[in-house]
Amino acid sequence: MSTARARVRGMLVAVALAAASVACAVPEPGVRLPDGSAPPSAEVDADLTTLPRPDVDVILPAGLPRVEGEGRRLIATPIAALTAGHTAPGGDVVVALSATAGLDVAGWYVTDLETGWVQVLTPYGRGALPSQNPARVNGYATWVRASQVSLAEAPARVVVSLADRELTLTRDGVTTTIPVGVGRQGAPTPSGLGQISEIVTSDAGHTYLTSLQSEVIDSYAGSGFAATALHADPHHGATVGRALSDGCVRLRPEDFAVLDGLPLGTPVVIRG
């Protein structure tokens, strides 16, 4: 990821965090849930403003569950400025999820369900730096109260095949497959289940940042993070079909429009 993109991303996150910080995690009098009822007092788990937020350059606290499988094909949307993230249903509150991602309303992919609880992918954050333990970089989730989110079917799913160097998008029952460029030897694109966590717009167009991060690079160009992104090939398509990136998935500029309109929380499955 270029330094310019990192600066743009940093500016957007600063705006998002500033917006979230002005609201209290405890619902104000008169706030209603989507069904019209008042939030129950049990939802006040902690002073969420003091907890870490799973941002792109954050090391996640211990105790969060690892993801198994490919999820429930649902996206959770928060209803409060901050949402408590638990280690388990009824477990410790260790993170606070922000309702915004850049300039957009956040969306989190649902990986499991229990009565009264929803497990979602953390929007960002690593369990460890690659230089510390590459096996613990990706794959984390957190549990949120079902009353604190609204659920909707994920309208699309992105699957990237590293072996075939192809991206397959299934949206509303229609499947489209396009060639992509992937990570080079020594900096491979990480495999696993992720989600679209943020959309950054600059003069170069859209960049879809995923929750997956490089498992060999601690930081791109001193940015403090190494997020795996879906973006247009900066070489006008010349590297598509090849393994030359530092881990990002590159699309031909003319193909990139296929991703337009994907909501945050859209699942991204990367397979070897």
TrEMBL record:
GO terms for molecular function: peptidoglycan L,D-transpeptidase activity; transferase activity. GO terms for biological process: cell wall organization; peptidoglycan-protein cross-linking; regulation of cell shape. GO terms for cellular component: extracellular region. InterPro entries: LD-transpeptidase, LD_TPept_cat_dom, Transpep_catalytic_dom. Gene3D superfamilies: L,D-transpeptidase catalytic domain-like. Residues 1-25 form the signal peptide. Pfam families: YkuD (PF03734). It comes from the Bacteria. Residues 156-271 form the L,D-TPase catalytic domain. The keyword Cell wall biogenesis/degradation applies. The active site is at H231 (proton donor/acceptor), C248 (nucleophile). Pathway: Cell wall biogenesis; peptidoglycan biosynthesis. The keyword Signal applies. Keywords: Cell shape, Cell wall biogenesis/degradation, Peptidoglycan synthesis, Signal, Transferase. PROSITE patterns: LD_TPASE, PROKAR_LIPOPROTEIN. This is L,D-transpeptidase-like protein.
